[in-house]
Write a structure and sequence with these properties.
The complex is a heterodimer of chains A (142) and B (394). Chain A is mainly α and 142 residues long. Chain A contains six helices and two strands. Chain A starts with a helix and ends with a helix. Chain B is built from 13 helices and 15 strands. Chain B has a seven-stranded mixed β-sheet, with helices on both faces. Chain B is globular. The chains are: A mainly alpha (142), B alpha/beta (394). At the A-B interface, helix 2 and helix 3 of A face helix 11 of B. Bound molecules: pyridoxal-5'-phosphate.
Chain lengths: 142, 394
Amino acid sequence: MKIKEIEEEIVEEFALFGEDWEGKYEHLIDLGKSLRIIADELKTEGRLIKGCQSKVWLQSELKNGRVFYTADSDAIITKGLVALIVRVLGDHSPQEIIEADMGFIDRIGLTAHLSPTRANGLLSMIKQMKMDALSLSLKSKV
Amino acid sequence: MNGKPLVYLDSAATAQKPTVVLKALSDYYLKQNANIHRGVYRLSQESTVAFEKARVVVQQFIGARYAHEIVFTAGTTASINLVASSFGKKFVNKGDELLVSEMEHHSNILPWQVLCQERGAVLKVIPLKDKGELDKGELDLEAFKKLLGPKTKLLALTQVSNTLGTVNPVTEMIALAHAAGAAVLIDGAQAVPHMKVNVVAMDCDFYCFSGHKLYGPTGIGVLYGKEKWLKELPPYQVGGGTIKTVRFSGTEYAELPLKFEAGTPHIEGGIGLGVAIDYLNSVGLDLAGAYEQELLRYATEKLSAIGGLRIIGAAAYKAAVISFVVDGLHALDIGTILDQQGIAVRTGHHCTQPLMERFGISGTVRASFAFYNTFEEVDKLVDGVIKALKMLRS
Ligand SMILES: Cc1ncc(COP(=O)(O)O)c(C=O)c1O
């Protein structure tokens, strides 16, 4: 599926909850449980994403021209947010990842997590995933 | 907030402002706006009088001997930086020692750390006592006595911990420091909103606090310094307002406190702070403090009853701040779910990372109370936490 299509799918999924924030957050927490977890030995200082109040480790690799992410967080909701972003961006080409505008976050009512000062650091995660995609694509070309 | 009435439990970060303060700010701009200490015209004189009146209100509020011992700054952090710079230049030399405690806010660590690096001095740390299970979050006074010595130039200590709520025995510690020949700066940011402070009885050399935690405007703060110190210290920032005469051959500095107030000050901030203090005086700080203690006791009792929840900081004497962690859960998760319920608490290290390290945690959830909070709000907090735990543990 294209990034846009996955975004639409998520928007529809979250729309089912309407104003029910509990349902929304429970769904997010569940999503976290499906995240492909980064191997423990890879949870190093270097793989920590800066700018989050909770710890988020991210590992990116390029396989057949597509980027795959594994990650983890010590906070449950943050983990759900990471899983959400990985679901959208993972398994796509670096170019597609770099160009994704991530507008769906606004539409599913999680905008609060996007503000630059927000401790969850969703913005930092997205930035790191895009930067990883870029550097992986550059490396693969040399 | 999030469709629910806001339950604001983050007054230790900044307090909500009474309407009289808001009115003072708008009145200033509508009716009084003019630069102070400069104009001969009526408006400028009026705003000068209002600003200087606020200084007297602050003086009386903390029991200082003279109004000129009150320096207006941008806040606690700015006050501490002022002393670190000016005191440091004149009195701190290679090999000297400065003392802070393990529970200090970063604002009362970093200026001293930088000063020590610059002057080749040594920063020493008063630890908490009773590590582990017994750790109530109180300072180890025996260790403190041993740390004091002939090389100790200054003790910089918080009166109330913003993370633990601990009220430190500052009067006793100041006396000990003085006996060892050290000057003492007290960080009163978390104390002045909750308890009567008298700097003369306490006998501190410097006392700092922020307007915005005291129901006043942001961007205004106070440095109290004993007259003898303020006279001796060199100015911090220089420029307009700090001088008596300027010649290129040399400058004579102004009298206190203007020597330390370079440039146009935060005029309406000072005036607003004066109004906030008047307001607090009319409520009665004793009454407000006693009521906050009731809230604290109630919240402590109810939160302690939640399984897996651990309160960090159980000092015998605490201000209305309650920090807690829950086994296996991140403070941020709890804070996020509370936010969804319209409950504003603070999560994280609260600018006290060394303290977090000591407790072996990455952060806490912190609820802090002001006299405008209610028992019903404590109930909402407790219910909110229970709900968060249920969701997060599922
Ligand atoms: C104990 C303590 N000291 C210093 C500060 C810094 O105050 P400000 O940011 O107003 O300068 C705070 C504020 O959080 C505090 O709680």
